[in-house]
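Mods, move this if it's the wrong board.
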Amino acid sequence: MTESTLTTTLIGRGHSGTRAFCKLLVDSGVYMGPTLSSSYCYSPINAYGRFVGTRVALRVTVAEGAMYEAARIFARYVDRVGEVEWDFSRAEKAQIPERFIELVDRYLAPIDASPAPRGWKLPETILMFPWLTRLRPDIHYVHWVRDPRDVLLHRHLTDDLTRFDVPADYSALRRRWVWDREVKQLRRAISWKYQHDLVKQSTKPKNWLVVRFEDFVLDHENEIKRISEFLDLPLVPLQVNRGAVGRWKNAPPIAGLDLLRPLMDHYGYP
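Not the wrong board. Structure tokens:
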């Protein structure tokens, strides 16, 4: 057996079931960073040499994350061309700033220094996807997708795109009560759309695999085989929770789905 040279990362929005994939990699002997959160994220706070143990503290100190700052730099090259539409062509053509490269290298230094197989997971990685694939074209990228009706049930740091300097207009929502359930879900829907529009409109790397969370759970054996072949790595199957699929069916109606129907069709969600 030849020595592995694998480096892999996950491209997916938070609360898409990405924890299951990273547990799969960790259980199979893939190094995923020096300190992992309960969600198996390699925290950007840790990459700065500082550990913050609570979710609240992580949100407060968001500006300290190297990858978060890199995401903000990328966002300045994105143009909003409609209420919830964006043009990423300027970013794709731009020369990547040295500061962006420095920040990504800083974050990935522990990964780069470790023997393969190795990788990392951080949901905000998706926010800089086109530039990352240009800087590191040989990485194996796994695009992780989950039915947005389940994703929109849970809050995530990327719900507010303006945290990362993404040009988004929430003025219509601000006229309503900020804690209103429908308002929160509309913000999540806009975020889900932005992140998947970004991936859909970007040039894909040579090592690219799309995995739907629902297939990973309901057809686990075949999906494990497919992912193993893509990574050229034997993977240890997980005990999956089939009840994690379709939780939206027992929840109140989800707001914002009209924005997402074309993308839902694209990914095969009826």
